[in-house]
Design brief:
homodimer; Hypothetical Oxidoreductase Yiak, Chain: A, domain 1; Ribosomal Protein S8, Chain: A, domain 1; 2 domains; seven-stranded mixed beta sheet; three-stranded antiparallel beta sheet; about 40% helix; about 20% strand
């Protein structure tokens, strides 16, 4: 594990990202959307989708022509409840946020709207889209497909991506329930951390290259594959995301998805307008009661607290908003290189 | 385990159920719907939701006034994409099928439709509703909430039901992918089977009454509780179903849900019209390719075949359709009692 070499303030990190994106040819408004997305991921503690890990990949993909900095985002289908967007290979956070805003707008009058997206870059942290829906007092659902690394249950060849999905339930202005999970047991990056520490991984995480369950993280990294979470049930969900975010929307699926840090299969987002079912105040009252029932349950052996989905990330968000975002030595190199290449001062370390 | 004492033919079992329901005051059309539902569950091998386990509970609930045999099913909200039905405490399979048909009808023009249901009896096997959607070449989603028996992750008090959901993806006329799963590790009934055999249960299935993980099925049956499947990820899904099928639709939730074999919390069903996203033929071609990719993967250690979600149930369906439905000694008593009470000849045993 790398050393923490200081902290950056989120507004300074945002300004840095925004300037870099604008220098790559991304319009100001889009540069703001993608920069806010990356900084928000860091604030929530989801560093794997934050500035230090993704920025240099995103800008390098623009430079290589894989990502289009000025996409012509087209509405291929536009009915009241179901829409399809062609993202013209734009930056994922820009394309997917446009899809989310469309779903919310249509759900306001129609009650429900599903928007599919094809030809999009890496959409980042799915919670960003369900957070947007809950801000509008709607239930949000988002899912995305990615290159194969997860086996079907009983198989020994990667067929699915880690295929994450997110569900957001609004509660109040301060906190909402945000589910955001991969349908694999873990991300590959987490296993790399075990390998670097020389620790064993649990037996239900991965197979080696021969399809044999392994507790050796290096056996996974050497051509191994991930297992879906929760056995055949997680496999069903992994497969469902592959269809919803990929095949339904006409995006590439399984091994047709190009590999890369800035690419994605497809994306799907849904907004459900609570007011079309019952008054929001009644819904909210019941949600607060359910949360109270959950929180007041006695603890199981070995636990100190019962957390709601999204609560750890929200706590980290509040903490980092005040204290700043920690910076680690290894990923700081990525920032310095980008800063030098685009002649932008890196954010100040405190 | 009870002895198998013979088999019944599905059409004869259907006729028996239908006659019994009509004698309890259920109109002919509704009696046909609920009978077909129960027999279909037996055909798919889902005996826990079939005739022998549920019929006597359903008719007894009608007799006790818990279930209304002639409900006045009302459309509380009826917009194009979001609808709400008050089931007037009718038989669940009747109310939920009406909701499903409404979702499909609206999705035909609107692309997508979500229908919520409150005041409904036990809706039975969720796969029945997603099977209906896939027959219409639509993607179906259904979920239902039930009385508390599952703990929140880290808690030692039942807060959620086994909260199952189903997702159906059409493939072709012979077979579609049907996910149908509880969000608990297992059903309580399965642990009772372990207890009767004197076998231990896996350590991640249940807690004893003190909130301690147990491998003793009797410790679960003595005031214990179920764990969500797949740890905190399954907990997030269990909670999501509690909100979608309960709080969103204004149905009772958690400990407010009445206990019983014929009752339920709430129900939610969604239909997504594939044609609103892309031509069905293109979708189907990609689905067949994905299935080929899954099926042709090399096998992991210890597996003989890679199955698709719903494939075991579909195989059982084809087998039982031809060979008949096996009958076990213990549950046959339920049928004999109902036959006697309503003066209807029980189906013939072969």
């Amino acid at each position: 594990m790398a050393n923490c070499i200081g902290k950056v303030f989120p507004n300074e990190l945002f300004d840095f990202c925004k300037t870099v994106f604008e220098k790559t040819g991304v319009p100001k408004h889009d540069a703001e959307i993608v920069s806010e997305h990356l900084v928000r991921a860091n604030l929530r503690g989801v560093d794997s989708h934050g500035v230090f890990v993704r920025l240099h990949h995103y800008v390098s993909a623009i430079k290589q022509g894989i990502i289009n900095p000025r996409p012509n985002i087209k509405f291929v289908k536009d009915t009241s409840g179901a829409c399809l967007i062609d993202g013209d290979n734009g930056l994922g956070p820009v394309v997917a946020m446009k899809a989310t805003e469309l779903a919310i707008k249509k759900a306001r009058s129609n009650g429900v709207c599903v928007v599919g997206v094809k030809n999009t870059g890496h959409v980042g942290m799915l919670a960003r889209y369900t957070l947007k829906a809950v801000e509008e007092k709607m239930i949000g659902f988002a899912a995305t497909s990615s290159p194969p690394i997860v086996v079907p249950w009983g198989g020994a060849k990667p067929v699915f991506g880690t295929n994450p999905f997110s569900i957001g339930f609004p509660v109040d202005e301060n906190f909402s329930i945000i589910v955001d999970m991969a349908t694999s047991t873990v991300a590959a990056g987490k296993i790399a951390v075990y390998a670097s520490k020389g620790e064993k991984i649990p037996p239900d995480w991965a197979l080696d290259k021969n399809g044999k369950p392994t507790t050796d993280p290096k056996a996974f990294l050497d051509g191994g594959m991930l297992l879906p979470f929760g056995g055949y049930k997680g496999y069903s969900l992994c497969l469902s995301v592959e269809v919803l975010a990929g095949i339904l929307v006409g995006a590439p699926f399984s091994h047709h998805i190009p590999r890369g840090w800035a690419t994605q299969g497809g994306f799907v987002v849904e907004a459900v307008n609570i007011e079309h079912f019952r008054p929001y105040g009644e819904y909210r009252k019941d949600m607060l009661e359910l949360i109270e029932i959950i929180k007041s349950a006695p603890l199981a052996e070995g636990f100190k607290e019962i957390l709601l989905p999204g609560e750890p990330e929200h706590r980290e968000y509040l903490k980092r908003l005040q204290d700043g975002i920690p910076v680690y030595e290894d990923v700081w190199e990525n920032i310095k290189k980008v800063a030098e290449e685009y002649n932008v001062s890196p954010p100040k370390l405190y």
